[in-house]
Amino acid sequence: MERTFIAIKPDGTNRGLIGEIIARFEKKGYKLVAMKAVKPSKELAETHYDALKEKPFFGPLVEFICSGLVIAMVWEGTGVVKTGRQMIGATNPLESAPGTIRGDLGIDVGRNVIHGSDAVETAEREIGIWFKPEELVDWDQTVKQWIYE
Ligand code: GTP
Ligand code: MG
Predict the structure, then answer these.
(1) One digit per residue, pLDDT tens: the chain, 149 residues?
(2) Prediction ipTM score
(3) Is 85 labelled as part of a ligand binding site?
(4) What does the DSSP assignment read for the chain?
(5) Ligand 1 pocket residues where CB is under 6 Å
């Protein structure tokens, strides 16, 4: 089953949005497979955002991600990478549609509340960076017969 890496950034945790964000993924029907609270090291943040290292905002972005509590999660379900990104909304919250997490909860691109993997391969890479294999929980989502046909 497809998996994605979702992280609530330090602005989201400081603003008390953890429950709101987790609730959206839960209510959608996706299955939580792993979750932990982390204050990321610079090395972890730089590795995570490696593809952006030439961007002018890379330094501030890494500093921001390391500045406080991050809730790192793995969510599982059909189409979770693409649909997760749609639930999150566009990178710039001023352009994210109302009803999306960023569209409803943010204003500034540098404070856009949440991260979601942008492709299945990226998700596999990011899950490997943030979690050890044994931290991914094998459990039965007993309501799945009411979520999937
Ligand atoms: P993530 O889910 O966090 O990876 O966001 P994304 O995939 O929607 O965007 P992208 O991977 O291109 O950028 C990663 C993060 O860098 C964004 O979430 C923003 O917080 C930040 N970022 C992207 N573009 C800009 C920018 O033009 N200015 C600033 N200050 N930050 C940016
Ligand atoms: Mg991205």
Answers:
(1) 999 999 999 999 999 999 999 999 999 999 999 999 999 999 999 999 999 999 999 999 999 999 999 999 999 999 999 999 999 999 999 999 999 999 999 999 999 999 999 999 999 999 999 999 999 999 999 999 999 99
(2) 0.95
(3) yes
(4) --EEEEEE-HHHHHTT-HHHHHHHHHHHT-EEEEEEEE---HHHHHHHTGGGTTSTTHHHHHHHHTTS-EEEEEEESTTHHHHHHHHH--SSTTTSPBTBHHHHH---GGG--EEE-SSHHHHHHHHHHH--GGGS-----GGGGGT--
(5) 52, 57, 61, 91, 109-110, 112, 115-116, 118
